[in-house]
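Example record used in the benchmark description.
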Amino acid sequence: MTPLSPEAFEAALRAVGEERYHVHHPFHHLLHGGKLTKGQVQAWALNRYCYQAAIPAKDASLLARLPTPELRREWRRRLVDHDGDGVTPGGVERWLILTDGLGLDRDYVTSEAGALPATRFAVQAYVRFVREASVLEAIASSLTEMFSPGIIRQRVSGMLAGYDFVSEATLAYFQPRLTQAPQDVAFALGYVTRHADTREKQEACLAALRFKCDLLWAQLDALHFAYVEPRLPPPGAFRPDPALMP
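Model output (structure tokens):
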């Protein structure tokens, strides 16, 4: 098959997000609309921590396989964004500020003992994919960041308007991502559009991005089933205080 032009290929990548990005999930509509209870928001933040904490491990596994100093420098920057530099907190620490603010015990959150099995399986699948797929596919899977600024703005404004138990300080994770994510995308999209020089490679990149969208969606499916309807958290999973649930 004839390769798509760079413009058509980028449009195809963006179309994946239009169809599959988890901003469209019913759980996010409830979250951003102020329709969840505090216990349900706690469950979301606790489970999302597993994903946030795995991002540096995912990026480190890719860093080890990158062939040039330029690529490795780019991915080291991402590690610092999420792990911090020992002085400025990174994304993982900022997410713990969120769970702290929601009244969750930090040791319990970081143990991941209360996470849903589906959350752990999805996160592990992502780390494994990036470790085992081609460098091109691994970088393509990061392109969900193309769609994140919109969801971040919805999330912050919606949660501040809808919940009296969050504040701008609680949601401090999100503001830096409004500048970090576009920087990440500029590099990754340029890399993917340059190096996916056959239709086969382009289709592999599209599949990688669909996979990433699917695993983000699966995490919300699990949260919705466990904590919204029919509210059946599996054995060992976090159970909110009944007073914080409907």
